[in-house]
Automatic annotation (TrEMBL):
Name this polypeptide is given: Flavonoid 3'-monooxygenase
Residues involved in heme binding: C265
Location(s) in or outside the cell: Membrane
Cofactor entry: heme
Lineage, opening ranks: Eukaryota, Viridiplantae, Streptophyta, Embryophyta, Tracheophyta
Tree of life domain: Eukaryota
Length: 328
């Protein structure tokens, strides 16, 4: 979708047509998320910034070089195909589309090569780490509260039955699964501080003066745990969303997992579809158990620090098929 699979290989022995292994890309993205979330002393006390006391700026520059090498390789490859296809060129992924825009001299805002690389990076970062993290957090929470798995399985049996997998047009008939996803996003928003916003002009928001040039950070993690908006906020209770119309696309300010307004996440539709179908099918297709030596209350829901939040301790689970064997 963003760029072809061929750019990532499974292992170093198989780098034909690719430039990076999947593990290396994952490592780069993990570092990218971590560095985007760190508190760099130089940003808060600018006269100290030249010292780069924590070494973050150096790490960012090194990371930039590694990503840039990857972006250049992908762009050159796409460009070569575009040139060799001439008039018959048909865009096959997002990079093709961006390159086509970059060639258009009539665009109001010209897309430079750097802009294209920036957009590729946005899509790569926004589209890869987010949805799996939500599924991961959901499993941490529901393994801690096994009655939720039973309730979800009951809904799946009733609506889908045991003779098929869950499909996209089933989503609207699975309100409990939807409530589980909302509850995970309330307690574990993937972007706990969203993405830093920048005030382009002086403005007043709910009585607060925000001067032009201010970096605005919105703490959705804390809003999701605020007693003013939620009963028993520290508890994982999907039921709180049943029979209530609480939107998660930016209309209800107590739940803002995708942000709100013009800079809201543009990938929310795709992201939610991935989460819904992955989670619903994992719950439908398998029974989930903790290892013998572990009790539900032992499951750790502490967070690892970064621009996105991940569970601090990975969870080990034992699965067995739940559906007739011919479906696997
Ligand atoms: C369920 C999964 C996802 C969640 C929870 C999520 C969450 C977010 C959040 C919180 C923001 C910042 C919004 C703000 O600051 O107001 C954001 C921005 C963004 N997301 Fe997502 N996202 C998800 C999936 C995706 C996918 C699948 C893509 C692309 C394929 C994507 C691409 C982006 C981009 C490009 C931005 C930057 C938008 C801008 O600055 O205008 N996201 N996302």
């Amino acid at each position: 979708m963003v760029l072809g699979n061929k750019y990532f290989s499974e292992s170093k022995c198989d780098l034909e047509g690719s430039i990076i292994t999947l593990d290396e890309l994952q490592e780069l993205l993990d570092q990218w998320f971590l560095l985007n979330g760190v508190i760099n002393i130089g940003d808060w006390i600018p006269w100290l910034s030249f010292l780069d006391m924590q070494g973050y700026v150096k790490q960012m520059k090194d990371l930039y070089k590694k990503f840039d090498r990857f972006h250049e390789y992908v762009l050159d490859d796409h460009k070569a195909k575009m040139v060799s296809s001439g008039e018959d060129f048909v865009p096959k992924d997002m990079v093709d589309v961006l390159l086509q825009f970059a060639e258009d001299p009539n665009l109001e805002v010209q897309l430079t090569r750097d802009c294209v690389k920036g957009l590729m990076q946005d899509l790569l970062a926004g589209g890869t780490d987010t949805s799996p993290t939500i599924v991961e957090w959901t499993f941490h929470e529901i393994m801690k509260n096994p009655h939720i798995i039973e309730k979800a399985a009951e809904e799946l049996d009733r609506v889908i039955g045991r003779e098929r997998w869950v499909e996209e047009n089933d989503f609207s008939k699975l309100p409990y699964i939807e409530a589980i996803i909302k509850e995970t996003l309330r307690l574990h928003p993937v972007g706990p501080l969203l993405v830093p916003h920048f005030a382009t002009e002086d403005c007043n928001v709910s009585g607060y003066n925000v001067s032009k040039g201010t970096t605005v950070i919105i703490n959705v993690w804390s809003i999701g745990r605020n007693h003013k908006y939620w009963d028993a906020p520290e508890e994982y209770l999907p039921e709180r969303f049943l029979d209530k119309k609480i939107d998660m696309l930016g209309q209800n300010f107590a739940l803002l997992p995708f942000g709100s307004g013009r800079r809201r996440c543009p990938g929310y539709n795709l992201g939610l579809k991935i989460v819904r179908s992955t989670l619903a099918n994992l719950l439908h297709g398998f029974n989930w158990k903790l290892p013998k030596n572990m009790k539900p209350e032992d499951v750790c829901v502490e967070e690892h620090y970064g621009l996105t939040t991940h569970p601090k301790v990975p969870l080990e689970m034992i699965i067995e098929p739940r559906l007739p064997i011919h479906l696997y």
